[in-house]
Design brief:
single chain, mainly beta, nine-stranded mixed β-sheet, four-stranded antiparallel β-sheet
Length: 409
């Protein structure tokens, strides 16, 4: 059993720091994320792209510069959702770049140190003429050493039970800079809580648009868990759920039509928690989930860290929380029973459950994943659709209508 340790105080950083990716290297902790300039289409100056944080104790986090040297400005003006991995003696940073919320392409940069500077390798992972919108890259390495890249892209087919919108795919990496071109569907939106916007103008049509994004994969007891964020990112509907599969390429299935099970909003306190990464804490035993969330002032998406506990019904977060909380070891010392008697968004140290999930302060028993079914294979992403979108508004000014749909991967 892990010893109790000092716990981070949420949010761990007071500034705008969305899509937080946290990793450990040589005893120090690092975080990289989407800053306000990156989200608003104003990045790319001499100061670099993607803010960095560093911590020696997992509790106190300090700014550590910016990660990415600005690439060719012709690639775009809006940068989202960086992730870093260490391989072959180098650090690789995966990210998307586009024009506001359109024409996003996945790219990779490299550096010799965790804080960079990272330089774009001029090796696009996706082709805008074939995949007009790709965001949120996440690298997963399986036990056999094979690496895969999970990411989000758009779908327009909506034959029940599938919903039109942004959803998740996975492709095999042939090298750190090249995909195999064999993308397969991971998860499609199927539930009302995943709705981004009804009657949304997109790609020359109008759709009941749903969103799954921000994939994060972990393997536990021979099964693959793909955490994702669903709903509308700037509202209380946004939260974190997961799909599960017996093979890294799927088929994956989720089974929670009522709402997200891992993280959800606490109205008036924490709004729209999501876009997660997972990191092992200093005790070497406790998993933490990093995520961003709006505060009541809705001025910034700020980074949070809370323990992630794995039980018979999959992962659950001991949160979301604001302010000091008890150490993870102390919470786990009581066992998992308390966690699974309470719904997502209220565990020890949190502010209470969302009203729609069970009222103010009342415990509830969330449904488990026992009813998971094997998902039918979904259609190929973007199949049969026209190509190449045009530019649009910045993400934090609300995603606009993308002009033309992707033509596949």
């Amino acid at each position: 059993m892990p010893n109790p340790q000092r716990a981070p105080t949420n949010p761990i950083f007071p500034g705008y720091f969305a899509d937080p990716f946290v990793w450990e290297h040589a005893g120090a902790y690092y975080a990289v994320g989407t800053g306000e300039l990156e989200a608003g289409g104003e990045a790319g100056g001499a100061g670099g792209i993607f803010p960095l944080l560093r911590s020696d104790d997992f509790v106190t986090w300090r700014p550590a510069g910016r990660a990415l040297e600005p690439p060719d400005p012709a690639l775009g003006d809006t940068y989202w959702a960086p992730e870093v991995t260490y391989a072959e003696g180098r650090f690789y940073l995966y990210y998307s770049v586009g024009f506001a919320d359109r024409q996003h392409q996945l790219r990779v940069a490299a550096a010799d140190a965790p804080l960079g500077p990272y330089r774009d390798l001029d090796a696009p992972l996706t082709d805008r003429t074939r995949c007009a919108f790709a965001i949120d890259p996440h690298l997963f390495q399986d036990d056999d050493g094979q690496r895969y890249l999970f990411y989000a892209t758009d779908f327009l087919d909506c034959e029940a039970p599938l919903r039109a919108g942004t959803a998740l795919v996975v492709d095999r990496l042939e090298s750190m800079t090249r995909l195999a071109g064999e993308a397969r569907v991971v998860l499609r939106a199927r539930h009302d809580w995943q709705r981004f916007l009804a009657e949304r103008p997109m790609y020359g049509g109008v759709y009941d648009w749903h969103t799954l994004e921000g994939p994060c994969v972990r393997k536990r007891s021979g099964r693959y868990y793909c955490l994702y964020s669903g709903g509308r990112w700037e509202t209380e509907s946004y939260g974190v759920d997961f799909g599960v599969a017996d093979h890294v390429l799927g088929p994956y299935a989720d089974a929670c039509p009522e709402g997200p099970r891992v993280l959800r909003s606490v109205p008036g306190t924490i709004i729209g928690p999501g876009h997660t990464s997972i990191v092992r804490g200093p005790d070497g035993a406790t998993d933490y989930i990093a995520y961003h969330a709006w505060g009541p002032d809705r001025r910034a998406r700020r980074p949070h860290l809370d323990p992630l506990v794995w039980g018979p019904d999959g992962p659950r977060c001991l949160g979301p929380t604001v302010g000091p909380r008890e150490p993870a070891g102390a919470a786990e010392a009581r066992g998992l029973d308390q966690l699974f008697l309470f719904g997502p968004g209220i565990g020890p140290g949190a502010a209470g459950p969302p009203a729609e999930a069970g009222g103010s302060g009342r415990p509830l028993v969330p449904r488990g994943v026992g009813s998971i079914r094997t998902a039918k294979p979904a259609p190929s992403p973007g199949a049969g659709l026209p190509r190449a979108p045009a530019s649009g508004r910045a993400r934090d000014a609300a995603r606009g209508a993308r002009a033309l749909p992707p033509a596949g991967l």
